[in-house]
Each structure stands twice: as structure tokens, then as C-alpha cells.
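2024-03-11 09:14:02 INFO receiving multi-entity request
2024-03-11 09:14:02 INFO entity count = three
2024-03-11 09:14:03 INFO echoing inputs for audit
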Amino acid sequence: MPQLKSLDELRALRQQLQRDVQARTAAATTITVGMGTCGIAAGAREVMSALLDDLAARGINAHVTTVGCIGMCSKEPLVDVKRGDDPKITYGNVNPTMVPRILDEHVADGRVVEDWVVARVAA
Amino acid sequence: MITLTIDGQKIQAEDDQTILEVCRKNSIYIPTLCSHPVLEPYGACRLCTVEVVRRGWSSLQAACTHPAWDGLEVKTYSDPVMEARKVVMGLLLSRAPNVPVIKQLAAEYGVAEPPFAVTDPNEKCILCGLCVRVCNDMVKAHVLNFSQHGVDRVVGPPFMEKTRECIGCGACTIVCPTGAIEIVLEQQGIYAEKPLGPTSAIYVPFLQAVPRVPVIDTDSCIRFRQHDRSNGDIADACGACQMLCEAKAIDFTQEDEVVELNVGAIVVATGFQMWDTTKLSQYSYGKSPNIITALEFERLSNASGPTGGQIVTADGVKPERVAIIHCVGSRDKNAHEYCSRICCMYSLKQAHLVRDKTNAEVYEFYMDMRAFGKGYEEFYERVQEEGVTMVRGRGAEVQVLPSGKLRVTGEDANLGKLVAADVDMVVLSSAIESPADASKVGSLFGLSRTPDGWFAEAHPKLKPVETNTDGVFLAGCAQGPKDVPDTVAHAGAAASQALALLSRGEVTISPQVAIVDEKLCSACKTCLTVCPYTAISYIIEDNVARVNEALCKGCGTCVATCPAGAITGQHFTDEQIYAQIEGLFRLPERVPA
Amino acid sequence: MADQYRADLLVSCLHDRPPELLAALDAELAHRGLDKEIRVVKAGCRGWCAQGPVLHVQPDDTFYVGVQPADVPELVEETLVKGRVVERLTFRDPATRKRVHRYADIPSHRKQLRIALRNCGLVNPESIEEYIALGGYEALAKALSSMTPEQVIAEVKKSGLRGRGGAGFPTGRKWESARHAEGEIKYVLANGDEGDPNCFMDRALMEGDPFSIVEGMTIGAYAIGAHQGYIYLPFEYTLAARSLQAALRRARDFGLLGQDILGSGFDFNITLRLGARSFVGGESTAIMHAIEGKPSEPRAKHVHTTDKGLWERPTCLNNVKSWAIIPEIIVKGGDWFAEIGTERSKGTQVFSLAGKINVTGLVEVPMGTTIRQLVFDVGGGLPKKRYFKAIQIGGPSGGVLPAGLLDTPMDYETLAEAGSMMGTGGVVVMDDRTCVVDVARYFLDFLRDESCGKCSTCREGIRRMLDIMTGITKGQGSLADLDQLEQLAKVVQGVSLCGLGKTAANPVLSTLRYFRDEYETHIREGLCPAGVCRSLSRFHILETCSGCGLCVKACPEDAIIGEKKQAHMIDQDKCLRCGACREACNLDKIEIVSPQAIAMMPKPAVVAVKPAAAGRGR
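2024-03-11 09:21:47 INFO inference complete, emitting structure
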């Protein structure tokens, strides 16, 4: 039990704890994983796990939600990234190894990984 | 000091007071029900509502709790105030419609009938909380409190059950404004209904007392009782008298003082006590409240007594027939054989008073009429002329009839028959006797008693005030029954004898006194116990016994008793006695012719 | 820290319900291997009582109502795995009849501005970590490290916050008096003893966001110089007590309560005190007496409790809602708070909506919101599109206001002028089938039971007013009774010792002011137009009845006779006056008439008609 002894200690603790409630606070980025039957069959579960682990490791603040089948079943697992006001980017055929790069380049830095984009919705 | 305006009048008052306190001090009338000068204000009845104007805002407030602030404007009888009080009284009257003080207050505000439906016409309690406050804050017995709430609120002991914590002080009945609390004696004892005692623990013993100041009966005073009950834990219960005394004259810490005085003369005037009339059960004393002793009658007929001097029976009505019985306990082998001397005359006086105040028929049952003094016989005649029936014969028995009347049976010796009278009140002229602690007083002063119990005078005819102990005199009934004129004469004689003794400065005493040889005395103190005149004292510093020559009468008891032979009777030494004996037995010498 | 959860399920309304819902959620998530990704949070009350248990999925903001254990598998599959909304579990907006998926889209929520209730239902009330993470204790830290007590008081004064317990006394002024009062030892008190019959905002706050109260009290104690605080709540609020106890414990663990808080050298401790709940027990001096161990009855407050309160020491008592608002004021500034609301009543007010209204529960809106906005925009209007007749604001101490005042902006002053009061925010909406005389009688009945009985005007006066009101509802009233009622009401109001008595007359006086004609109809015509007072109402089917038979099915006594498609009639001898037929009738063909009137109408022919299928009412 840390006994807080100053405003700075409180603020540091808050920083640490914010990750815990990040589901309830506003986040700049929302990542959506397709979890329809097609998605799950294609391995969306593993992508989800990798996503969560890597996000935690990098300390990135982003919302992760699921969605059902969008229709592009052949490209599953599909991962949407909506960063702030930027257009929503859909990555297709995502596997767990691709996750780090999407996070580092697009989510953290704002650079879309063009090679993997299958759809783009204007802001 | 602050200033406020009450009913347009500027009033100065001390700080920290309520509006009610200021009004009371300035004789401004505000009706109250739940307020009491020695208890904390509670604000329950709302009758003391007044209009208060402060900074332009007018509101109705309870005067008993609202502080008197500087610059306040108070109106005690404006229209809103009167209307409020009228409604309050209407509500209280509907709650307790048959309580006199509520009816009277309601009438003052124009409410003659309860304006709302009455649920319990016998309800008396208005939940003012005075009993709760007095029991908790003053008496500190913590017996009474409120329970339930709202319209179901009631006052009582915990769970409304009788509790031993109640000390029966009666404070709650005294403060209750509506008479809703009664004290009920658990044992309906014989004397339960006799209203002949003081009603509060602090009281002036009687109006003729000198000095005429109150005393506190520590047996019934709440403060002392609570202190004793709680072994000192509750040390400051009540104290209402001290709070109210403006002269600050009450001091609870006063103790009995023991004062040592060296005196040359002592006058014993310990008086008499009434003989216990229950000892002769045929008079039924104690079985009816209307059978009273003569002393109780004196109290009854006294203007400062419980009935204000009216002669009434226990029911409060004038008796139609009264019997007075002489010689109850006097001239009686079963009680006292002597004549109490004073009863015949006072009985005549009491008969006279009864006739005068009530016009009742009076029957005097007497054996002999002892009207021995100046004007006494004439008074006896007069009383007979007033229509008092004199029955010459001892009243033998008093019976309490089922109807409550009393039947006195006796012999009328003049008629030679048994007679009976059914009367409403019987006055027993009980004997007087020497006080219960006479033997203690006697041994203190070395006084002996005559067979009738009174202290013995030195000579029945010639020395009525002296005793066998020099310097100790008797005055009044201590020596024997006597009435007021005789007591005055007797006491005067004792006083002058005492003064004569003291004014002599020196006294001549007989030289035949005992003397202790202090070299032989072993301080066994045997002589102290046998001296009838308490003339020998033990001197601690010298560890010897020593004889007070002024007190010693030369009886010689100590001389005979001393185991060491250390005491000699002066002029009665062994040698002197042997010489006297030898002188007696010496043959006379033949003297030549 | 904990694993990274991608979603939080905020579940509310679990207290005193069977624990199956949570167990089902945990089991299903574990079964699907989602328990490391999705967290179930036992959140506190957010005031959706009529719709509970509610479940809020964050970050999706999907909101479900009335969730049962049987719904859990589908919910997890569709929403948490596939990201799809389960329509049947969503909230149907009563005004539009459409389903709303996201919480932020719920119209009544959109119109609210939740300050006091900001965290309720959105956090695990026992978790100090969540509270801190969401910004909690920033206010206390700011106050202790960079503000003097006087500055704190100045900020509160600037905000214009007025006590949310009902009296609306300026909080900043109260703190200032307490600060300047003589004495070394001072206390802060939180009043959680709400007694109004339809109010539970204090409960929701204590259950759902106890840390905000604790933090607020700590700031207040710092401002006035107190080192001991008490929170007084009814012992029936078991969950609230539990949440508060947990909060106190956690705050102590983290050095945010107790000695040397946040290393500032300031000591402060809080103790809970549970009392037997009663309406009058929530009065400030009654609470202080209760804490002192005496019966909880009020005393006259000529000497303010800020000078002599608990144990004759300076005491600052505020409602729990006021304490909960304080941290926001300190963090965001008094000016921010003062921007919200009206000229003299700043900030927001929590209302508990009850009665004939679609959205029952707790809402929080800015001061100055009109009654119309509260009832129709936030409250979703009256069910079954009935007509708005009257509204009672402020609980039993408040007054009843008519439709003519719907556009009154609500704040302390306007409501008092209208004859009502803000109170603690209890609101009862009434339609044309509510009898205001009966409503006034109902509240008087409540007050009669709740009176402590100390002062004669309240104890006896309320009882007598109730007798008169009951008489009127039974047809035994006279016009002279109305005068007596008014006189009695004025004296009870002016002369009683405490707030209960002083405001007890409000229901009577306000209904007499705005609905006198309804009283007179009861008295003169022997008729209760709303059909509530059974002695004064008789149900009569109009001749234009279409004979659909809905009422026949509804009647529990089989008192309605008639052939299909022909006007029906009610057998008055069997009729209980329960009103079920009127509720069932969609065409409004059943009217209320007085007993005298019905006596003059033709009776239904006693023919051996086969009654329709047994009444549903059985």
C-alpha cells in the first residue's frame, strides 16, 4: 500500500492507473477487430490477443472493440484503425506478426502501413 | 448589557438571556406551559410565541428559547401572536379537554370548546417535558423520558414499567403543569393519608420558629438522598433552592459542629414526648385517619396547619360529632400510672374550639376533672355551658365501624350505665412521658430518675429544681408533667439558682471529699466507673485518676473500691476511724473525788 | 498493474439481488477465454432503478437494461465477441418508441449535466485506483499543496454553491462562519440521512461514488480547520455503508485520510455513524443529537451550529451531494461552476423523478431548467400520453405546482415564490388521474408519522389537518373546514420548532392556492374528478362506448355488462372503484361522476347476461 506523500506521487500513481481504466476514458485511437464467424475462423482471436499484449507492452492508449462480419470475409482477419480525425483504415489478412508494425507506425506515429490496407473510409 | 424593544418599550437586559427571561424580569406577561425557572428551556408547547422583528424581517418565535439580542424588536400581543396562541390552545384543549389549567388558558384566548374531535377526554399529559427535564437534569435519577414519536409520543419510565430507580421524590408531580402525574405510595400505610407534614424537603419548621429560616431535611432532600444512594457519584443533584435563592443563603456543605464549652452550671430542660398511643389497641389509634391524638389536633386547629385551622375529618368535611377521651395512657396500670396533669385543661380547650369552629356535638369522656389552676374551674364551667357533654367515665374502647364512623364506648359513672357514642372524630388525650433518650441524658449528667421516669429532683418538696449533682438543675417537664404557667415558674427557679451559683464566684464545699494518692494510683480507672457523681476523671498527661472536689460528695464508694488503696476519704481516714473506735471502747478512767 | 482490458462491463443494480447475474457473466467470459480481456466492474447506482439491472459496455458505450442471467450467453457472444448490439436488451425511448444503443444517445441522458453524479455507475465504488485514475484526489492535492484554507473558502464562495440538502444555504458562507467560530476542536458532518419518500440520490451517491464525498469532506475540513468528520447515514443503507467503509479504508491505506495527508501535515479522520432512519432525523441538529447519543429530535437553531453544534463545538454540516461537488469546484474553479445555473442558484441539481413519468430515476440538470424541460425533455413525458396536471417538487415539504407554471425555470427562489421548494430534489409528476387533494392528504399522513412529537403545533396540528383532509376525501368536508384548514396550516407553518413542522403545511397551502376548485368540487359536488377518492367517484361508461370489451376483461369483479360492439354498462353495486377499466380503455370512454349523479342515472337492466371471460383482474 503506497502511502502518498505529495502531489507528485499522486500524479505519478494516476499515470500508472490510467491504463487500467482506459476503456472508460476518451482515447484518440480506436482499433476494431472483426469477430464474425469468418473472422474467428481466420484467426481473429489470436490477432486480438497479440494486439492487447503489444498495446500493453508499448503503453499505448487506444480503445479496442470488436465488430461482426463486415462483408469482406475473404480478407479476414480485418482490423480497423481510426486515429483521431484521420480516415478510418482497414487492414486485411492481419496476422499476429503484423501487429507490432501497425502499432508502431500507424497508431503511435500516424503513418499508415499502405501495403496492408484493404479499405479506406474518408473522415 | 443589551437593549431591545418589547411592545414599544426600550428595555435593558443582561447578556445571554432569552426573551422570556427578560420579560419575566420586567413583569411583561407571556403565558407558558413547558417552561420552569430552574430547568433548561425546551420549546415544546409553543404557547410563548411572540413576534420578533429583526433587520426588517418579522417572524414568530418561541420566547423561551430565542435569545434576547441587542436591537431586537419583540411584540408579545400583536395579532399574529394572539392568533397563534389561540390555535395552540385549541390544539392543546382538544388533546386534554378536562384539565383546568388548559381550559383556563384556552378561555383567555377565546377558545371555550375543543375545536377538534377529542380522542381521549381523560388525557392530561401535554408532553411538555418538564418531568423529563427535572428527573434527568435535576434529580439525576434518569427515570422518566419520552418514548415513541409523533402523535404516539408518551412519557414514562423505560418500557413503561415500574422501576426501582425512581426515588419517589415527587419532583415530577410538582413541576407537572396539568397534574398528569400522581405519586402513589406502594404500601398503603396507616399514615399514608395524613396530610400533616412538611411538603418539601426545605421548609420553615413552623411559623413561630425563631429564627424564622428554612431548614433542609437531609433525609428527603434530593441532593442528599442521591449523594447517599450513589455513594457520592451524584454529588450535585437538584439544588433548585440554591438556584432560586436571591440572598445566596443556602450552603449544602454545612456540617454539624461539635462545640466544647467549659461551664459552671447546666440546666436540663429536655421536656417530654407523647406516649405511643398504639400501645393500647382498644383505642384503635392508626386504624382510622379520624382518630387523632391531642397534639395532632393542635396542629389541625392551628391556622398555619394543613387545613388552615379548620377542624375537618380526613375527607375534608366538618365533623358533626366529636369525642374527646381523657387519660389515654395516664392513670393506667397498663401504661403510665401517673396523671399527665395537662390533659384535662387542654381537652376542655379543644372541646371549646370544636364547638366554636364546627358547632359539632362534643362528648368528653373523663374520670376526674383536674382544674387546679387560676381560672381553670371557671373555664370548666363555661365549657359545660357551651353544651359540651361531659361523660364521667373512662372511654373504654373506640371501634371503627364499616361506615367509617367511630363508636366510643364507656361507662357513665353518674348514670351507672355503659354508653356509646357514634362520632366522626375522636381526639385522644394521650399521656406525656419522659423522652426516649432520658437514660442517656441521665448518665451524661449523673441524674437519676424517679419511678415514673422523670428526672429526680434533689428533694420533692424543698428542692424542686436542684439535682443531686451540684450545678445541674432541672427545668420544666424534664422533672415532671406541668403546664405552661408551672413550667415558667419552674424554669425561672432553675435559672435563678444557676445564676446564684455562678454569681457566687466561689463555693464552699464540704471538706469531706476523696483524694487520690497519685504515687499509689495505677490508673486502673475502677474508681471512675463507680462514682455516682462523675467526680473522678482520668488525667492522661499524668496517668492518674483525680477527684474533682466540687463534685465529690464524700460518699466513700471510691475509697472502698480502689484496689491499690490509693484513695482516701478526707476526714474519714482509716486512722481517724480506728481512733474513733478505740475511743469508743476505752474504759472511762476513774477520776478521784 | 493489471492486465490490459479492452472492455469494461459496468454492471449496476446488483445490491440485494441474487448474485446469479455476475456469476453468469464471470462464468461465460471464463468459458470463452475472454476473462483476461474483458473486465466486469461492479459499479454503483446510477439511478436507473426502474430498468435495472443495467449493463454498460465501455468503450463501445453500448447500454443494456433489464439484463437477466439468461441473457448473458447471447450478450457475450454478440456484443463482446462480435461487436453487435442485442436489440431486445437496449433501452426503448418512451417518447420516440425507438431503441437507443448508445448511452450517450439516450435523450434524457443527453440533456443532463452530471456533476454530483459524475461517477455513479461508471466506476467500481470500492476502487480508489479507478477513482484516482479518472482524476480523483486531484482537488485535494491541489488544495493541500497550493491553496490556503481561506483560498479554498473563497473558491467555494465564488462558485455560489448552495447546500444541496434542501435549505440552499450558501456553502461558502457556512464554511466561513465555521472557520471563524471560536474553538480548537471543530467537526465536519456529511448528512446522508435522506428521508423523503421518493428520493434516493444520496444513497446512489454513497453507494456509487463514496470517494468523492470523502475527498470533499477532507477539503472542507482543511478549509475550516477540523480534524474529525462524521458521515451520518441510515442503517438500512447497507450497501452505502459498505462502500463508504471500503472507501475510508482504502483512503487511509493510500495516505489520503488519517495523519499527515499527502505529506502536508494535515490530519483528518472520518467515522461513519449509522442511525435509525426517519424524516426528521435528517435535520441537522437532530443528527448532531443522534451522534451525541441522544434521541434524534431537533432543537431551535438560534445559535448556529457553525458556532455550537456537535458537542457544543463548531460544526459544518453539509449534504453528501454538496461534499461530492466540492472536488469538481476546486479542480475546475468556482467560476466554472458559477457559469452553470441561474443568477442566484448555481450549478446543477439532482432530481429523483417519480410518479406519472416515463424516465423514473435520478437525473441531474443545471439550475434554471424549466419544469417543462425536466418533465418532457429529460423525463420523457408522461406515460400513455396522459395530460400533465401537477407536479410536486421538494418532497413532503414541497408544494404542488400546476400546469400553468410549467415554464418556470427551477431554482431555490422561483420555487419558493411559487409556493413549493427545491428541497433535496424529489419530484412527483401527476396526471389528470391523480387527485391533488388525495396527494396532499398522503403527504400529511407521511408527515404525521414522521413528526418527532416535540412541539405541539407540529404534533397536534398535522394530525388535525390530516383529519380534515381525510374528511374531505371521504365526502365529509365543508367549506368552513377549508378556512379552518388554512388557519391551522398558517400557524403550524409559523410557529413550529423545526423545518418539518414549518414546511408541513406546504402541500396543503399550495394545493389550496392552485387547485382550490378541486377541493370545492369534492365538497360541493361530492365528486373527485380524478376518480381517486373512492367515496366520491363512480365510474360511468359513456354511451359512445364501442363495446370492444377491453374493460370487461380488466374488471376483477365482473361488474361490466354488455354485448359485443354495444355500449357497455357498469353494475354500480359490484363496482369497487379500482379504476382498472379506465386504465384499460383506449378510447377514454369511461368518465367519473359523483355518487349523487350516478344515483340519478338509469341502472343497467339486470338481465341474465353471460359475462365475458373471467376478468383478468382475478
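2024-03-11 09:21:48 INFO post-check: Chain C touches chain A through 42 residues (CB under 8 Å).
2024-03-11 09:21:48 INFO post-check: The domain at 537-599 of chain C is CATH 3.30.70.20 (Alpha-Beta Plaits).
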